[in-house]
Amino acid sequence: MSKIRIGVDVGGTFTDVLLMNVSTGETHRAKTPSTPEDQSKGILNGILAACEKAGVSPADIKELMHGTTVATNAVLERKGARVGLMTTDGYGQVLQIARSFVPGGLAGWIVWNKPEPLADLEDTVEVLERIGADGSIVRELNEDSVRQAIAKLKKRGVEAITVSLINSYANDAHEQRILAIFKEEWPEIPVSLSSDVLPEMREYERTVTTVANSYVRPTLSRYLSSLEKTLSENNIQASTKVLRSDGGLMSFDIAAEKPVNLMMSGPAGGVKGALWIAKKAGFKNLLTYDMGGTSTDVALIENGTPVVRRETRVGDVSVRASSLDVRTVGAGGGSIAKVPELTKALRVGPESAGAVPGPACYSKGGEEPTVTDANVVLGYLPVDLLGGEMQLDREASIRSVQKIADALGVSLEEAAAGIISIANENMFGALRLVSIEQGYDPRDFALIGFGGAGPLHANALGKLMGSWPVIIPPSPGVLCAYGDATTQIRNEAAKTQIAKLESLDAATLAAELQSLGESAAALLEEEGIAPEDRVYTYQMDLRYTGQGFEVPVKVTIEDLKKDGFQAAIAAFDTIHEQLFTFKLDLPHELVNLRAIVEQQEQELHVQELEKGTEDASEALVKRHDTFWYEGQNYEAAIYERAKLKQGNHIPGPAIVAEMDATTVILPKHEAVVDAFGNLIINPTN
């Protein structure tokens, strides 16, 4: 029997499901409305629809990989658990003191409202103990103070506990003992230990990360339990995994314990899917651009490797957890356009019409003009959406956008074009964050556009960025689900070790990294991943002596044993110069060691398209006389993507329609269909 794998991505507007036959490479896709009241319903609807298309039973599904925004939304909407925080005596205000950093300009401190911590000071308790920075016990744990603190937290009605003691990264004995006392006194409460979640120095970062873990833990645990129950009730006995922020996979059980690693789970799926598709197409340097109904996520991939950062930021909360460097902007197909009475200046987003009521053209009660409505007015989005399964109301879009035109005193088309231009500039700004502001030239990268709305805007963004070619993968609307279905299990282990490199022995350090690798590999061992199918990556967090921040540098065991720290120092200086435009002639200092273990990438069969000629007329559906661009109305050809063949050329202006997305090819541009069905768009002059 063929192995059936399911990838699921839940967005704010739609839930995307991809069913993959691992043996043949055959795929089937489903896109269903998200069900915010119970996301498992939308997931089940998508799975059943995909199974019906594939002609398989839900019982045939062997693996289910899921990217989720549940943890993200809990933080953004401040709908997480009430967290009780237990700290060392004298450190109860660790979250309030935080770091002396105020975002914004010179006057930022005047207008900036300091965000409320995820654990209230009233729900913070202190216990008598002290661990030294070297791991020695300075003051023995007073267990009576722990039991008194637990009694206080019970009265406060907290729903989850964080234990974060000073220097516990160096010695976790006291935190482990406190966990044992909780199991005696309050066994049902979920407890997160900072030495388990983030065993690294810096008490604020370690505490806020562990508190965030506790904050979303009950919510995510309930969500995953509900999903597993729904799957079981429908005879789906698949192995279930959830996507981590850093692009790896973890089991539902581990995810429920350490949900802080899922803060960017949803966007990570798109990056992994884009990487997988682009590798097959022969592109290694990519800017990924994922535009959905509510927001747009962008990332950079250099030489086939996504940029990973050691910090995850969700809203005004920053936690120390590895994640793909994905930046998000509130610009999506559902972003609402407004002309405030005070300024009379057009604004687009971040408020979104979402799935309900949605854009005006969806005929679900929405009346506000959105980016999707502007695309309909300009003729970029045909009225037959989702392969004819959904009809758009063009007249409703015209009525909604006309309100903007009247407010600005311009024509209907100019108002719609203005909405599109501002949305594009918002997304352009996000792309600059991951490219130009990180020392990369966007002209050295291809741009891959996906998501339900991404292909509508990708060609225009390619022009703004100078990033060519623009790549539109097959089924771009469900590429995040594709990424979920093609991702591998991943785990990491880290430890803090502060010392000047000149005082360290490289061979000894190599042995410590290998030991960390063995610790990280234990999870893969539990998942049944054979040793020969594991890939080990090692990092050292380095800085110049005297600096207050560090930069992760990839190292190899072979280089450390053969040439000492030469390669690591050279790599650090190069990265530092790229990020900050200078390097220093100072000694280098080690801060953290890290080992990452990942399942070997699986070679999945990919079906190639039937070869054709340059002539794409067999896929031509009709001529479209409404295509307004830069003050001129064009006649555009509409093509059915499912009928395109390898080698077909599609000159712009043109529209390529498919089940889950619509691609716009602008005038003076042309798309070529490659062997794997990607649309490769380049300017023609």
Automatic annotation (TrEMBL):
Q: Which GO terms describe its biological process?
A: glutathione metabolic process
| Gene source species | Nitritalea halalkaliphila LW7
GO CC, one annotated term = cytosol
> What name does the UniProt record give this protein?
5-oxoprolinase (ATP-hydrolyzing)
Top-level lineage group: Bacteria
Alphabetized GO MF terms:
5-oxoprolinase (ATP-hydrolyzing) activity
Positions of the HTH cro/C1-type domain: 394-415
- Taken from the record, one Pfam family name reads Hydantoinase_A
